[in-house]
Amino acid sequence: MSEEDPPRPGTRADGSHDDDSLTEFGYKPELKRTLGNFHTFAAGISYISILTGTFQLFYFGVSHGGPAYWWSWPMVFLGQLTVALCFCELAARYPVAGSIYNWAKQLGGPHVGWLGGWMMLTATMVSLSAVALAYQVTLPQISSWFQFIGNGTGRTDSAANAVLLGTVLITFTTLVNAFGVKLMARINSAGVAIELIAAIVLIILLAAHITRGPSAITETFGLGSGQNFGYFSAFLTASLASAYVMYGFDTASSLGEESKDPGRNAPRAILRALLASFLIGGLILLFALLAVPDLHSKQLSVDGLQFVVLSTLGSTVGQVVLWCVVVAITVCELAVHTAGIRLAFAMARDNNLPAASLLAKVSPRFQTPVLPAVVIGLVAVCILLINVNQPQIFSVITSIAIIMIYLAYLMVTAPMLVKRLRGQWKPAEGKFSLGRFGLPVNILAVLWGAAMSLNLAWPRAAVYNATGPQHWYLRWGAFLFIGVVALGGFAYYWFVQRKRTGVLAGHAAVPTSPGA
User: What is the pTM of this model?
Assistant: First the structure.
């Protein structure tokens, strides 16, 4: 709002209305509000990261579902849209840091809140490592100079080099986040602008090189034959390539305590980020399938979109696009790290993490929680090291991290549905509301979340044990790992942490005197 703009109805001239939701949670405002509309939108869309996700996972979708896997993109969008709409109502009413944790706590109670926050925090740290590995998929294709370890043909060359490149990226995002949200927002917004422009240019270039008609996206290549449900089984496996991309839009609300007028801007940012990702990503995937010279090429199932770009647009234009993908990976990593920091800060100020008083401390100089940035970065680097000699185990853990995010979302939408059925849910007055559509949308969000979580966790060899030898514990890795994280984490909470839970004195809202 400019100085000339009149205040909106219900707002106060000093902007203190932005902190009303904090008071409801018992927190005092500590983080500086500097982010505008585009900053919050950029945070959401950079977490989703159209170029990062499509370039990293296109090969998986095509290899398991053929060109017809494209239809999983609108399917996942519609499912995630129901979740996003529920989140928009919550973001309008509770625009606070660590949105998933605080929403689950408010809707389902402290136990559900802690478990949702714990699952999301664990998944975020693993995701930070997984996104960092995307450098290895792209940089060595730009130039062999980026293959610092070996020449890429050795058994562990690629894995070890991926860890090196990933560590450099995580170090960068740690430093940027430690120096404050303003620097992070500037770099992130610039990166998102480059990514969006590059994505639109890529769509135009691919569209100009179309070699076949739209009927190509109905081709299944006979995949799924011999399976119990035929192509549907193959399609469900291939749909993971889309499910692995379209999440993280809640980040726009997780920065609510650092945004201006977050109750209005956060819901818009969530929807805009998801819609833009769907439209731009869907067109990239569509035109890539219609433009690639040979739809049956084995390289399509190995090198994915990188192969399409280089073979269709030529090496010069292709390399420019790949450099834009590198920018997209960088800002995606930055957004994932940022979201993790806000989540850790939110849980810590409730004394819900070890060394909470240190993790919740806000730097007076940078006005951001510095220690969580460092700790999350160090944990992510440690997780990366698993990739050196056990890349298959790492791929299992990465897949499981995404399931945990879907489950964390479910820990928000399910309690919200219970509140609706009991008549206890009331959207923020005068802000985003689903009205009479709230209940059906919420029901669909819960059904979608449960169904996709099961699809993601299904013990497929193609996902959890892609190369031999076969191990039962890898096939059932999702259930085993999530069981250990959830049960182990909750046992720690129940026997240790819950006795300490409560807003730390240094972060509690200051009671206002009567008449103040």
Answer: 0.89
